[in-house]
Design a protein that fits this description.
Chain lengths: 157, 361
C-alpha cells in the first residue's frame, strides 16, 4: 500500500490554454493589470505534494476560483482539496501562497482559502494559511521550504 | 489635527516586526526578519522638544545609533527595553529563545542571558513596569513568567498553559502585577499572582478571530485589543469609583467589554495597537493608534462619559492615514511612553522601514 492520503485521485483533462495576448501587452505606457488568467498560469502547474500530477490535473485549482482586483491590489485564490479530509490541504495552500509571493508585485494582498464546503477543517486551514506570522515562521523552516520548492519546481516549466 | 512624518529610518533588510521605546523616550529599538535589532535616536535631542516641524521629513533628523547583530538564528519577532533604566533589551525569536542584552560603553550590546524553554517560536516578550518580571509567549500555546535574579539572569517561575492555540502577544498592567495575553484562540486572558501561583482571573471573549495585540490605558483602567476580526475592543478593568479617582480593585468583578470599534474601521487584520501617554483628564482618556494589513494608520480619541447616554466609554476616529508605509502592512505602532514626548509615534512595516511621526491635536 502506498500510504497516501488519497491513493487514487481522479485526474482531469488539462486545457492547453495559453493566455491570450493583448495588443497593449508590450506597451509600457499602458497599465497592464494583473488578471485571473495570469494568476492561473502561475499556479496551475504546481505539483501536488503526493502525486506526480499538477494542481490543475487534480482539479485543485480552477480558473473560476481566482478573484483579482488589480485596482485594490487584492488576490483571492480558492482551491479544492481532492478529498474532504486531505491532510495536505495546508501544504498545498502554502505552495500557492509562496508561488504568488515570489511572483506578484509586492503591493498585492493575497488570501488563500479552501473552496467553501470542500474540506472538513476548512475554517482551521484558512486561518492558518492567512496568518502572516505563521506563514513567516513556516518560510524559515528549512525542511518545509524544501518540500514547497519541490512542489513549485514544475510551476514555471 | 495633523500627523507629520518626521523621519524614515531605513536599514533593516526584511520586514520590521516590533518597536520599543527607551524609557527616556529618546531612543527606539526595532527588530526584524533580518535577525537584527537596530537602535535609533534623533540626531539632535532638542528635536523631540521642538514645537515646529518641517512639512517633509528632514533628512538626518534621526540616525542609526547601534545594532545588535543578534545571535538569534531566525526572525527576531519582539523587542523590549527594560522599563526602569533602559540598560537592558530583551529579544524574542522564532528560534525559540529569548535573549537579554546589556549595553556596555566599550563592548556595545552583549548577550547576558538566553532564556530557553519554549518548544518553538517565541512571539513576544514583555517587561513588567518594575523590571523584575518578564513574560514570554509563543507558538507552543504557553505563557512563561520569569523573575530577575540578579546578574542579568532570570528564573522561570511559572508556565501558563491555558490558551488552546499560539499566544501572540503579552503585556503588563502599568501599576499592578497583572498580565494580559492574547491568542490565535480568539481569547484574551488576564493573569495574576496569588501566593507565588499565577492563575487566569478572567477570559475575555468576544473577538471572533485571532487577537494580535493589546495595550492598557496609562492609568490601567482599560485594556484595548485588536484582532483579525477587524474590530478594536475596549475592556474596562474591575474598579470602583471613589469621588474623583479610580481605585483599582482587581478582584471586584469582571473585565467587561466597554466599547467596540466596528469592523468597518479596518479592512484587513489589525496587527498592533498603542495607547498614548497624553495627560488625560476626567473626560479625555487619551489617544489610541492602530495599524494593520490594510496599510492604514488610524488614531482614535477615547472619552469617558461619551456615547449617547453620556455614561459610557467611547472611541472616535480622529485621524486616518492610508498607505502610512506605502503599499505595505503596518506591523507595529508605538506611542512614546514619556508624557513630555507623548506626541511622538513610531510605526514599523513590511517595507523594512521604521517611521517617526509627530501628532498635533
Amino acid at each position: 500500500m502506498s500510504g497516501k492520503i488519497n491513493a487514487a485521485p481522479q485526474v482531469y483533462d488539462v486545457q492547453q490554454t495559453v493566455r491570450r495576448e493583448s495588443p497593449t501587452d508590450h506597451d509600457d505606457s499602458v497599465h497592464d493589470p494583473i488578471d485571473a488568467d495570469e494568476i492561473y498560469e502561475l499556479i496551475r502547474n504546481i505539483n501536488d505534494p503526493e502525486h506526480p500530477l499538477t494542481l490543475e490535473q487534480l482539479n485543485v485549482t480552477q480558473r473560476a476560483h481566482i478573484h483579482v482586483d488589480d485596482a485594490n491590489s487584492t488576490v483571492l485564490v480558492e482551491f479544492t482539496p481532492t478529498i474532504p479530509h486531505c491532510s495536505m490541504a495546508t501544504l498545498i495552500g502554502l505552495c500557492i501562497r509562496v508561488r504568488l509571493l515570489r511572483s506578484l508585485p509586492e503591493r498585492f494582498k493575497i488570501d488563500i482559502k479552501i473552496a467553501e464546503g470542500t474540506h472538513q477543517s476548512e475554517e482551521e486551514v484558512n486561518k492558518q494559511l492567512n496568518d502572516k506570522e505563521r506563514v513567516a515562521a513556516a518560510l524559515e523552516n528549512i525542511h518545509l521550504i524544501e518540500v514547497v520548492n519541490q512542489c513549485l519546481s514544475t510551476a514555471s516549466a | 489635527m495633523t500627523l507629520i512624518l518626521v523621519a524614515e529610518l531605513e536599514g533593516h533588510k526584511d520586514r520590521v516586526w516590533q518597536l520599543s521605546w527607551h524609557p527616556s523616550g529618546e531612543r527606539l529599538a526595532s527588530c526584524s526578519g533580518d535577525r537584527t535589532v537596530r537602535i535609533w535616536a534623533p540626531s539632535d535631542p532638542g528635536l523631540l522638544s521642538a514645537d515646529s516641524f518641517p512639512e517633509k521629513p528632514a533628512p538626518g533628523a534621526w540616525k542609526a545609533l547601534d545594532q545588535i547583530e543578534s545571535t538569534h538564528k531566525r526572525t527576531v519577532r519582539s523587542v523590549a527595553y527594560e522599563p526602569t533604566t533602559g540598560k537592558q533589551i530583551a529579544t524574542a525569536s522564532f528560534d525559540g529563545t529569548t535573549s537579554i542584552w546589556e549595553y556596555d560603553e566599550y563592548q556595545g550590546y552583549e548577550c547576558e542571558a538566553t532564556l530557553e524553554g519554549h518548544e518553538n517560536e517565541v512571539k513576544c516578550v514583555s517587561w513588567s513596569p518594575s523590571g523584575q518580571l518578564l513574560a514570554t509567549c509563543g507558538r507552543d500555546k504557553s505563557v512563561w513568567i520569569w523573575e530577575a535574579v540578579g546578574g542579568g539572569d532570570f528564573d522561570c517561575i511559572s508556565v501558563l498553559m491555558e490558551h488552546t492555540h499560539d499566544v501572540k502577544f503579552v503585556t503588563w498592567h502599568p501599576t499592578e502585577e497583572i498580565l494580559a495575553s492574547v491568542s490565535y484562540d480568539n481569547t484574551v486572558r488576564i493573569w495574576k499572582e496569588d501566593d507565588d501561583d499565577w492563575y487566569c482571573t478572567k477570559i475575555l471573549e468576544g473577538h471572533t478571530s485571532t487577537v494580535w495585540s493589546a495595550d492598557f490605558s496609562p492609568d490601567g483602567s482599560y485594556l484595548v485589543t485588536v484582532s483579525d476580526d477587524l474590530t478594536v475592543k475596549f475592556w474596562k478593568a474591575p474598579s470602583v469609583k471613589t469621588s474623583s479617582e479610580i481605585e483599582f480593585v482587581p478582584d471586584s468583578g469582571s473585565w467587561d467589554l466597554a466599547y467596540t470599534v466596528p469592523a468597518q474601521a479596518h479592512t484587513r487584520p489589525i496587527y498592533s495597537v498603542s495607547w498614548s501617554h497624553h495627560a488625560s483628564d476626567s473626560g479625555n482618556h487619551g489617544l489610541v493608534a492602530t495599524g494593520g494589513g490594510d496599510n492604514t494608520l488610524r488614531i482614535f480619541k477615547t472619552v469617558l462619559n461619551g456615547g449617547r447616554d453620556k455614561t459610557g466609554f467611547e472611541a472616535t476616529l480622529v485621524e486616518e492615514l492610508k498607505n502610512a508605509h506605502g503599499q505595505y502592512d503596518i506591523n507595529c505602532v508605538k506611542w512614546n511612553p514619556c508624557q513630555k514626548y507623548s506626541c511622538w509615534l513610531a510605526t514599523a512595516g513590511d517595507d523594512g522601514v521604521v517611521r517617526i511621526w509627530y501628532y498635533t491635536a
